[in-house]
């Protein structure tokens, strides 16, 4: 890691900067506008939030990246649950993307999660952002969501400890932390605290539609 890059735990003083960064990074990427900054704001008070795994990345003393985690679960066919982590949001300031800052945030936080005793991360995401970071399709690890035998294209699995998943069928149970974003009026009200920004269509939204509405079947 370069000398001018520092990764450190998020503190209360960083909250607003992280929310501004998240809004900038996600704006118009997955939908016209964004709700991830509201998610970030709300998740810190959610019981599934893992504060020890909320990190900011500073470049020359300025926050240009962050990653956050919630608890999630894998449940087997007998109802037995295994606690895991789920990363997201993860973002890097658009001016500094594609310089491996996202990579170091993932690696740093995975190491911290491993130290806490977690051995698996599962999250929904754009595969293009994760494939070279040790993530694989959920189908390869037999992790389902929204019904047994269903392997969503965007459901990605990273073993923090190699071999943590042995092929046993699991159902992914996400945290309810992101449910707050279903309240469109609350998202809009929160967004009003930020400078006006134009909502627009972008091709990445259609790409996301395809990933989030499809499953791996063969
Ligand atoms: C996703 C995000 C965090 C990645 O951070 P980053 O610092 O830009 O990523 P990195 O430079 O570490 O590269 C990540 C991977 O993206 C892919 N990538 C790199 N350059 C790319 C390009 N020009 N076009 C498409 N994909 C590219 C590669 O898979 C790359 O890994 P590799 O080059 O090691 O093979 C950042 O782009 C971002 O904030 N995006 C908007 C918010 C978002 O989508 N967050 C993730 C939610 S799923």
Count of runs of 4 or more consecutive helical residues: 5
CATH C-level: Alpha Beta
Query: What count of domains describes the coordinates?
Result: 1
Assembly status: single chain
Overall helicity: 10-25%
**What's the total number of strands?**
9
Which secondary-structure class do the elements indicate? alpha+beta
* CATH architecture identity: 3-Layer(aba) Sandwich
Provide the gyration radius in Å: 17 Å
Describe the main β-sheet briefly.
6 strands, mixed
The proportion of strand residues reads 15-25%
Specify the overall morphology.
globular
Detail the poorly predicted runs.
none
Describe the structure.
The chain is α+β, with helices and mostly antiparallel strands. The protein has one domain: Aminopeptidase, CATH 3.40.630.30. Helices cover 24% and strands 25% of the residues. A hairpin with a 5-residue loop joins strand 3 and strand 4. The chain starts with a strand and ends in a 6-residue tail after the last helix. The mean pLDDT is 97. Bound molecules: coenzyme A. The site of coenzyme A (COA) has 18 residues, from helix 1, strand 4 and helix 3.
């Amino acid at each position: 890691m370069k000398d001018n890059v520092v990764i450190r735990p998020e503190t209360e003083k960083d909250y607003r900067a992280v929310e501004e960064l998240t809004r900038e990074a996600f704006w118009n990427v997955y939908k016209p506008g964004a709700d991830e900054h509201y998610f970030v704001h709300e998740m810190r008070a959610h019981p599934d939030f893992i504060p020890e795994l909320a990190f900011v990345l500073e470049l020359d003393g300025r926050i240009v990246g962050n990653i956050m985690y919630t608890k999630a679960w894998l449940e087997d066919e007998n109802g037995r649950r295994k606690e895991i982590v789920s990363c997201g949001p993860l973002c890097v300031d658009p001016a500094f993307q594609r310089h491996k800052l996202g990579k170091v945030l993932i690696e740093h936080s995975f190491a911290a999660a491993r130290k806490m005793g977690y051995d698996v991360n599962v999250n929904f995401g754009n595969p293009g952002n994760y494939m070279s970071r040790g993530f694989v399709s959920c189908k390869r690890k037999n992790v389902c969501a929204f019904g047994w035998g269903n392997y969503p294209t965007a459901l990605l699995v990273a073993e923090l400890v190699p071999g943590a998943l042995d092929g046993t069928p699991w159902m992914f149970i996400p945290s309810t932390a992101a449910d707050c974003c279903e309240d469109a009026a609350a998202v809009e009200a929160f967004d009003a605290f930020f400078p006006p920004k134009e909502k627009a269509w972008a091709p990445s939204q259609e790409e996301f539609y395809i990933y989030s509405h499809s499953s791996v079947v063969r």
